Each structure stands twice: as structure tokens, then as C-alpha cells.
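Private note to self, pasted from the team thread so I don't lose it. C-alpha cells:
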């Protein structure tokens, strides 16, 4: 039996399906041809290794789809940056017409996407539930924004006070959006989330603590600045919910043992403070 012919019987011999006559001839070739024997041994070892892998349990990361979504968002954004100049001209016209173009959390604030069948309710703040839903909540210790439009809409993100878009997400009528908000910057960032062409959907401002602890001090400033100071001091996200006057002046001392009490002490008049799941503070008008 030639070397080439014997090679054709590797699989059948390994599986025990070779006819007796061919089996005998094949074994004789293996015993007399050292090169053939070495090649067969490598073949058998490879198949045995593949067979053992069938029973190996491979753990798929729970957020794999979110990582893919984030990577795709980044790729689409980069593609837009190299588009023809005419594209930028059209964008300026749209922006001048009053369409808010926003983005996510600066270069180090990331958003992750997962399509879901509908909005979740646990730990979620819902804005304008009679029409479209734009909500912020904590899901499995992850700060999350969700949106379920009645028609195709674009959700845009940016960090205050930046105006340059960093990411935008188009959500179809038949789908819902869930995005994780992650701040990888050292310091607290204030993220603005808006829906284009949806005047009845209030914009959301979220102060997200950074990766480095900060020693926030007593002071005074706007509601936006207070939200950042509160988030930095107590290491919790703070949501400004549907406020018409985020630049209103506030004075704070941050001496309270928790963020809820600190916010109650600082905010007077038409504001109310709420906490969700113990790690999300919301400030809205009473």
C-alpha cells in the first residue's frame, strides 16, 4: 500500500470502520513506514483533541453583545469623521435649525447597547410616560439609560459643557434601547442625554462619578455643579430629571452622612429628591 493510498484510510481506521483486508494492509504499512506512522499519530492526536473539546464548557461573557454594540458605535462614529466636507456642512445646517446633537460621556465615558423587548421598571426613572420613554436606572450595579420610542428617533449624548458629539444612537419603532453609562475619567462627568425631534421628551442630565475618589467641599453654584459635587462626594450617580432651570443657583455643605440627606439640606423650594436602589439619586421639580 502506497503512502498516499494509506493516507486516505486515516479516518476510517481511527473510527474502526476499515474493512478487515484493508485494515491488515494499512497496519502493515504503518509498521514498515516510519514517516506514515508519524503522520498518522499526529492525525489521531489532533482528532482526539478536537473530540475532547466538544465537552469543554465555554463561558460567554454576559456583556458580549454590549461590547460588540459599543465597538460598532465607535466604528460608525469614526466613519462619520472621515466623511466628505459636504456632510459637515449639512450637519451645521441641521444644528443651526435647532436639532440638538449630543454625544456620550467624552472620550473616556462609554455607552454600551443591548436591544430589549421593552423598558424595565426596577430602579428606573421614567420621563413623560404618556408618550415616549427616556429612563435612567441601575441594573445589576450598572448605570443604564433606556428608551422605547413610538417612532424612529435618534438619541444623542455629550458631556457638559462640551458641544461636540461623541456618539449617537438611532432607535427604531419596533425596538427598545438599553445603554450602560460608564465613566472611565478620573473625575466626575456630567452627561447630557437628548432625543432629537422629540420636544415632549425631556433631556436628562446625569452626574457620574469617575474612577478616582474626590474630596468635594462645601460651595455654591448651579444645579449642574451641585449634582457633580454630590456625585463626587458620595460616589453615587445623580440624575437631574426634567429641570427647566439646571443653571439655578444652589449652596451646599455636604456634611450629611448620605447623598439623599445632603441634597435635601441644600435644595429648597420647588425641588424634590428621591433615591432608587440606594445608589441612584434623582432631583426633580416637586
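Design output:
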Amino acid at each position: 500500500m502506497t503512502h498516499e493510498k494509506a493516507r486516505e484510510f486515516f479516518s476510517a481506521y481511527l473510527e474502526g470502520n476499515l474493512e478487515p483486508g484493508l485494515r491488515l494492509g494499512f497496519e502493515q504499512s504503518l509498521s514498515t513506514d516510519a514517516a506514515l506512522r508519524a503522520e498518522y499519530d499526529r492525525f489521531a492526536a489532533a482528532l482526539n483533541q478536537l473530540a475532547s473539546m466538544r465537552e469543554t464548557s465555554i463561558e460567554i461573557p454576559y456583556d458580549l453583545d454590549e461590547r460588540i454594540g459599543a465597538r460598532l458605535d465607535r466604528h460608525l462614529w469614526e466613519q462619520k469623521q472621515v466623511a466628505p466636507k459636504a456632510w459637515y456642512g449639512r450637519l451645521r445646517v441641521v444644528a443651526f435649525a435647532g436639532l440638538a446633537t449630543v454625544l456620550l460621556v467624552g472620550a473616556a465615558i462609554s455607552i454600551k447597547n443591548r436591544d430589549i423587548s421593552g423598558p424595565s421598571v426596577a430602579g428606573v426613572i421614567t420621563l413623560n410616560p404618556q408618550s415616549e420613554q427616556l429612563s435612567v436606572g441601575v441594573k445589576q450595579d450598572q448605570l443604564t439609560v433606556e428608551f422605547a420610542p413610538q417612532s424612529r428617533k435618534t438619541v444623542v449624548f455629550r458631556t457638559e459643557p462640551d458641544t461636540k458629539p461623541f456618539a449617537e444612537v438611532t432607535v427604531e419603532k419596533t425596538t427598545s434601547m438599553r445603554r450602560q453609562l460608564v465613566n472611565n475619567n478620573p473625575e466626575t462627568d456630567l452627561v447630557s442625554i437628548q432625543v432629537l425631534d422629540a420636544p415632549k421628551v425631556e433631556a436628562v442630565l446625569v452626574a457620574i462619578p469617575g474612577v478616582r475618589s474626590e474630596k468635594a467641599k462645601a460651595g455654591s453654584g448651579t444645579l449642574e455643579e451641585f449634582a457633580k459635587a454630590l456625585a463626587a462626594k458620595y460616589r453615587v450617580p445623580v440624575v437631574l430629571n426634567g429641570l427647566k432651570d439646571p443653571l439655578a443657583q444652589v449652596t451646599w455643605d455636604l456634611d450629611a452622612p448620605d447623598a439623599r440627606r445632603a441634597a435635601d439640606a441644600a435644595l429648597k423650594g420647588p425641588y424634590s429628591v428621591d433615591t432608587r436602589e440606594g445608589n441612584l439619586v434623582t432631583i426633580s421639580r416637586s
